[in-house]
Amino acid sequence: MLDTNCTNNFSSGTRITLAFLMALLAFATMLGNAVVILAFVVDKSLRHRSNYFFLNLAISDFFVGVISIPLFIPHTVFKWDMGDSLCTFWLIIDYLLCTSSVYNIVLISYDRYQSVSNAVSYRVKQTEILKIVALMVAVWVLAFLVHGPMILVSQSWKEDRKTCEPGFFSSKYLIAFTSFFEFLVPVISVAYFNIYIYWSLWKRSSLSRSQSHHGISPPVSSSNSGHSSKSGLISTTSLSKLKETGAPLHSEKQRRKDSLLLSLRRQINNNTIASKMCSISHSDSITLQQRELLRAKKLARSLAILLSVFAICWAPHSVSIIFLSDKPKPNWYEILFWLQWFNSFVNPFLYPLCHKRFQKAFSKIFCMKKKTLSSHNQSLSFER
Q: Name one GO cellular component term (predicted).
């Protein structure tokens, strides 16, 4: 954790400004994720598989703004001594929330990987609520196992009781072990899912281009239509000629000819209708493939943004803490430390706000607020 000696040289005005900015970050983090959670309550159409994982991410980031940052502000800025019990509680909660936020990002990436690689089975899994809840709970359990037991065991190793940081920070190997599971494994997983999605999109786009180039409309329809028009003309002209010449229409031979001509016309008409239906269904399948491809491209783009922001916010601190474990923390370490919490602030703006369903849900929330405010103002004016 952050060394409180970094803020000893600051004046009281600078400390108040820092505390205000940190409190503003905590409030914005809490508010942004609270809106995402409220969207699930207001809009029932959001309650499907992928959006439940967004909900799990919003819950972990919400408590970062409620518990982690507010408790840390007086400790780091005003040198408030938490005590051993409160320090251990805060460390476990903070590491649990931050790691669960990271693992939720991995879970969202895995879910999008499944929607592209196994689209048919993914649609079936949309209604499996028990499996969705099990995955959400598994994220929290794994996040606790990464740091929780190690924090409880290593708190007795601490020599400096004034700074609230884990006891295993004195060992580079333990820090490297936790950084491996907290940062490196998630980054590799999300990068793999992202690369696979882009590779699958490249294959599907090349396949759709080849299909649209070679098979827009079946060639049978044109020949059949031409043949049907010719046969129709032949049949009508032959019948008209027979009527004009006054041939015996009621003879047995003429009846057979008429019946053959009528059956031939019906068969050709059926062939032309079937060929037209095939061409329409073929064009519909092409448009459906294009829609699916466009949806997958949007998923891949948002996943690439997710990976980039996560790497920017977590890589500097995860790498620097290994080299600064047994050294005094420099001033620039504060920026790297707060970048991890800044990721919890950015998450509700990056992922849910990029989806139209969330945007509709947010508009419903704000419309409800406007309606309640207008009705309240009308009631006040009526009372006056």
A: synapse
8 A C-beta contact, residue 50 and residue 132: no
* Three-state secondary structure readout of 87-99: HHHHHHHHHHHHH
Domains (range + CATH), the chain: 4-214+315-374 (1.20.1070.10)
Amino acid found at 54: F
pLDDT digits (tens, 9 = 90+) for 126-163: 767 888 999 999 999 999 999 999 898 887 776 666 77
Distance, CA of 240 to chain centre: 69
**Cα–Cα dist 179/340, whole Å:** 13
Q: Give the DSSP H/E element, type plus range, for residue 237.
A: helix 220-245
Distances (CA, A) of 305 to 105, 115, 342: 11, 18, 15
State both tokens at 167.
Answer: 């006891």
In DSSP notation, 195-231 reads HHHHHHHHHHHHHHHHHHHH-SS-THHHHHHHHHHHH
- Cα distances (Å, whole numbers) of residue 8 to 1, 11, 33, 208, 233: 16, 8, 33, 63, 101
- Say which residues have a Cβ less than 8 Å from residue 214's Cβ, sequence separation at least 6: none
CA distances from 93 to 72, 96, 172, 211, 301 (A): 12, 5, 22, 54, 32
Residue 255 amino acid letter: R
What span, in angstroms and rounded, lies between the C-alpha atoms of 148 and 142?
10
Rounded to the nearest angstrom, the gap between the alpha carbon of residue 333 and the centroid of all alpha carbons in its chain is 31
Q: What rounded mean pLDDT belongs to the chain?
A: 75
Residue 65 C-alpha from the chain's centroid: 22
Q: What angle do CA 67, 69, 72 make, to 5 degrees?
A: 100
Global pTM value: 0.71
